[in-house]
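Team,

Forwarding the record for the chain on the shared tracking sheet. I've put the sequence and predicted structure together so nobody has to dig through attachments.
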Amino acid sequence: MDNFIVSARKYRPATFSTVVGQDSLITTLKNAIIKKQLAQAYLFCGPRGVGKTTCARIFAKTINCLNPTPEMEACGECESCKAFAEQRSFNIHELDAASNNSVDGIRNLIEQVRVPPQIGKYSVYIIDEVHMLSSQAFNSFLKTLEEPPAHAIFILATTEKHKIIPTILSRCQIYDFNRIKVEDIVKYLEGIAKNEDVAYELEGLNIIAQKADGAMRDALSIFDQIVSYSDNNIAYQKVIENLNVLDFQYYFTLTEHFLAGDFAATLKVYDELLSKGFDNQQFITGMSNHLRNLLICKDPQTAQLLEVGTAIAERYIKFATECTTDFLVKALDIINQADVTYKQSSNQRLHLELMLIRLCGINQEKKKTSLSG
C-alpha cells in the first residue's frame, strides 16, 4: 500500500509562480533577486496557512540556485536545487522558535551563522513563530541580526507581528501576507481535484474555501477530510454534512418568514436547527453573514464582494430584490445587538428567540406606521 501524503504537503508550492494569492509580494521578492538587492533580514507576517514559510523556502532555494531561469525561478536541476528537494541542503536552516525560545537556542544559531555555505552564495536561516522567543533571546539575537556575515540571510515568520519588539522590526524588511481569497482557493482546489480524479461540485469547493477562512493549508486539510468522507465525490450536500455547516436554504427560508412577519414558522425552523445540534453562536454569525450578503447584492458595484458559488450568488442577487435596504439594515442591527449581549444572557435560547421575533416585527411595524398615517 502506497504511503498517503496529505495534500498540504503534496501540493505545497515549489516555485514563486505556484504561490497562490500573494502576487505583489512575490513580485517584490523576485525584483530584489534580479537587482541583487537582498536584505540581511526579512519578516514575513500574516495569518496562518497563507504561505509564509513556503515563500521563505522558495526564496532561499532561488537565491542559491546556480542556474536560475530568466523569470527568476529556481532551475530545479543544479546541485543546490537537488539538495534542497532531497532535504539535505546545508544552505537552509529552519528553527522553530516555539520549541527553541531560550537564549541557548539563539546562541547555538549565532555560532552556526559564522560557517559559510559549501554550495551557493547564502546561508538562509528561517525562524518560524519568531514571536515566541523570550525577551532575553531577542536581545541576544539583536547584534547578529543587525550585522550578520555577508553570506547570512534571516527570514523571520510570525502570525503575531505586534508581539515582536521594535528593535527587531527596525532591522527587517517587513512583508505582510494577505488572507487568500475564496475564489483563489476554489481555483486551486479545482486543479487538485482534477489531478486526483476526484469528482466535485463548485458549491462544495466554495464551502471548503469559506470554512478555511483565507488559509490555504486549512483548505487542503478540509479537502482531504471531505474526500475521505464522500468517497472521492465532493458534493455540496456531503460537504455541509461533514463540516456541520448550515445549508443556505435555511437562511433564505428564515428571511422569507421575517419578511412575512411569521414568527411561529420562524421559531419552528430555529427549533429544528437546535435539534440538529447547530450552535447558537454559529447561527448568529451565519445569519448576519447571510443578511450582509443580501445587502451587498442590492448594488451591482458591491455584489462582487460576494464570496459564494455562482449558483448561490445568483439566488442572492434575485432574492435581494425582495428585501428593502431599510429592512436589511435594521435586521443587521438587531442581530448585531443580540451577538454583543449573547454571552451575558442567562437564557440563551430565549435570547435568540426574542431576536428572531424582533426580526419578524420589522415589516409589521412599518405596516402599522403606514396604516396609522
